[in-house]
Amino acid sequence: MQITSRWSIVLLIFIASCSVTQRSVKIGENACQAYQNKDYERALALYGQYISAHDDNPLLIPDSIYRNAGLAAFQLQNKELSLDYLNRIRNTDAANAETHYALAILNRGIDNLSREISALESYVTNYPNGENINEMRSRLFETWVESRNYQKAFELWPSIEQKVSEKESLLNDYFITLKALNKEELLNEVAENLLVLNSNNIDALSHLAIQYFDKAESRYQTEMEAYEKTRTRRQYAQLLKGFEILNEDFRKSLNYFLKLYEIDPKPSYARYIGNIYLRFDDKEKARIYHNKSVD
Question: Is the Cβ–Cβ distance between 249 and 258 less than 8 Å?
């Protein structure tokens, strides 16, 4: 009698277990159907039930369940839950383009740059024809500049240039990249393009102002040194010809520095302006700006 009772209990437990399993499978199927129908609220609720039912043994939960639950939560702007689910499968085969896209957006929202870069790299590398590839490439470029991976940023630029070169922030990041890599031959063109987009772009104005000043000042010193060595009429004519060229560069530099000073009256800008007026032999203006350089 006792043996019969024991087997009855075992049988009841087995039947109950099968019943739970069947209900769990049904919940999973309904969740997947709701997800496919883009009924994300119902899908997330059902996926939550499925996951809770396996709390004691999460290894029985397929990665696809976490993925779909995370993406449903992402669609519903439930960022914390989405990040929790998707982080569990971000390095598995279940992670797809949507997964990496969502993780990039979510990690950017919590300012986790390293995780964001990882998601962006996964998307760009594995889904070059993905629906969001342009957005992901552009953002990856920004994050590489932000993390000072300038060589990577430089190599990525050609793949996004045609689509984003008219966006000032990205072009400015490219300018910063070129400067960091000492690619002087490309800086002028990019600086000019930046000024087309924004005539008050500080990086571009400063670069061009200093470059034209240094170029003019270098030629001034060279011409004066040559004239001091041989004070002939021929050398004097050469000096005047050289001054015509270098004065044009000084004028360009002056215009840029005046613009910079108008935007932000820094003493360093005033000092440059005063020095240029000295080269133009305008001692009064030179004095005014040199006084401002020590304010």
Answer: no
